[in-house]
Write a structure and sequence with these properties.
This protein is α+β, with helices and mostly antiparallel strands. The chain has a single domain (about 5-60), classed as Alpha-Beta Plaits. The protein is about 25% helix and about 20% strand. The chain contains two helices and four strands, in the order βαββαβ. It has helices spanning about 15-20, 45-55; strands at about 5, 25, 35, 60. The N and C termini lie close together (about 5 Å). It binds iron/sulfur cluster.
Length: about 60
């Protein structure tokens, strides 16, 4: 499973980075989130799905 954050859509609510700090972090420059690793680590798929589902901007894209 791959994960990415659309930087144009992310509003930096930090929800994803708080709930799944292994998967998401926030850029110092603009406060927008990015995926720590484009490839979701084994066993973290549900966390990635939850993050995508709960992102208020639907900025998290799974593939
Ligand atoms: S929850 Fe969504 S909008 Fe908020 S920081 Fe994460 S990706 Fe960006």
């Amino acid at each position: 499973m791959k994960v990415r954050v659309d930087p144009e859509v992310c509003q930096g609510h930090t929800l994803c980075a708080m709930n799944a700090p292994d998967l998401f972090a926030l850029r110092d420059e603009d406060g927008h989130a990015y995926a720590v690793d484009e490839e979701v680590p084994a066993g973290k798929e549900d966390l990635a799905r939850d993050a995508a589902r709960t992102c208020p901007e639907q900025a998290i894209v799974l593939s």
